[in-house]
Design a protein that fits this description.
CATH superfamily: MFS general substrate transporter like domains
Protein name: Molybdate-anion transporter
Shape: globular
Strand content: under 5%
Function: Mediates high-affinity intracellular uptake of the rare oligo-element molybdenum.
Number of helices: 14
Keywords: Cell membrane, Ion transport, Membrane, Transmembrane, Transmembrane helix, Transport
CATH topology: Growth Hormone, Chain: A
Radius of gyration: 20 Å
Structural class: mainly alpha
Order of helices and strands: HHHHHHHHHHHHHH
CATH class: Mainly Alpha
Subcellular location: Cell membrane
Distance between the termini: 35 Å
GO molecular function: molybdate ion transmembrane transporter activity
Helix content: over 70%
Number of domains: 1
Length: about 350
Amino acid sequence: MAAYCLQGPYMWSLYRVQYGLPERLVALLFVTGFVSEGVASPLVGAWADQYGRRKLCLAFCVISTFTCILTFLPNLPTLILGRLCGGISAAILYTAFEPWLVSSASSMGQSSEDLSTIISHATLVNGFVASGAGIISNKLVATTIDFTSPLVVSGFLLVLGFFVILKTWSENYGDGGRSTATVLSQTGRLRQAWRIVCEDPALLTVGLTQTCFEGSMYFFAFIWVPSLQEVSRLNDLLPLGYIFASFMVSITTGSILYNTIVVRSKIKGTYSSLTFHAKFSSVICAVSALTFAICVASSYEDWRYLAFLVFEICVGMYFPVQGMLRGMLISKDYQATVVSLFRLPLMHAPFYLAYPRS
């Protein structure tokens, strides 16, 4: 997570300021990464279930390191290739790691309450790590006056993460894992996952919620820097690393809020837990929509920044809530495949970024 977040705060500034690319090309690069992620997600999910989630997590470290290397080369074809690789690595990050965790917890006989605690704590730790990554990236850029400097540290952490996963993680699979599979069998697996979704209205609702909410996260990833800069009262470049760190603190706050609410609610039984998390998810989506409405309506820097912070708090609550819903509704044999299936529609959302802003 630290390696991934180190790449985030200054990527827009790297393309726009240091490399001098026009905003349309910057948007194109972001779109390339998002589309790559959307296309790769279903295949990555099927491969994770089929060939092993640990293997895909190792592949994430390798591909992300390659992405960092390509980003150092300031020519458009190489940058596009880097964004393609970045999209694939992001697809792995969001479709292989959580199913590995859920399957491992299930294999160890953990209850749904224990799983909820594990996921919320993981989100909490990720928030602290990401906050630290934002601060470090800000310090690195301020010291080196080079937007590529966080990528060096990111590459080092990815290599370290590769060996940690290699030495300490056990492998787990979905239904039919360990077998050799053709592209046709992977397509059949996706069709089977879609049938599972269609037969369960609750699961379909959870999937559509994932598509809509994570689509808004895609837009946010591109717009937060230019949106704050256009209303900024500062003449110099904003301290993007610190702002990013504050976003990550907000995600951590959201995770803490989720954990506190769950503990105080004293949920008992799978059905009660399912109902509670479904209602919780609805509230998160409503509040998130309100934050974007405030951002659009207000031209004040403070209000936009505050709205973004609240949105990130919602993100911090969204991941454990959504993780619990998926853990209760999706069989572990098809979990990565079903999760990735609903990431496919996300590839269409980023095309709106390529349109010039008025």
